[in-house]
Write a structure and sequence with these properties.
mainly alpha, globular
Amino acid sequence: MLSLIFILITILSLVLFYFGTGQNRKVLILSVILLLVTGVLAYFGFFENTETKPPRFLLVIFLGIVMATYFYKIVQKDGLNSNKLLAVHILRIPVELVLYQLFLRKLIPELMTFTGYNFDILVGVSALIILIYLLITRNKLSKLFVILWNSIGILFLTIIVVIAILSSPLPIQQFAFDQPNIALLKFPYIYLPGYIVPIVYLSHILSIRNEISQK
């Protein structure tokens, strides 16, 4: 059941980002291809082999960066839907709940959860509050607030990304030797570093770019 929930979260992140960026077909097609490729590899345990050099997990991170960089270049500011991009961040709430369940199942360390050093759920809750406010009042947020909120979101996300990488059973592991981060090497949780995290980063960056470009 937990796996199905996470697959649904992944699909929702794709759908919200697709509509939030103007329904660019390249975004949809490349997202589906990336999810299929990483999903199949993870399903057959490709990324769970941590003895190879360089570690196979780095391929996931590399592909995520390449995808996000390409999307940044092709997404036009005129097609952005700020509310749908904001909704992408609300998915951080169920993601954090899934991570906590993975901790209870001894698949990730506690420091990767909201009871540890992962404060990302606060960004998800604030995104939900902001979106409700915008839908009810029809007001527009100030440029300073949008830039500041997205910058904080990037900071919180970066903190947990660093913790997750340094808690993984890789040569650079620094934390959680008693319970390393092994869940994110498996299907479907590979989608968190391989797709959801890059999409969340990009949603923040596109929102900041959009605000800066406005007079």
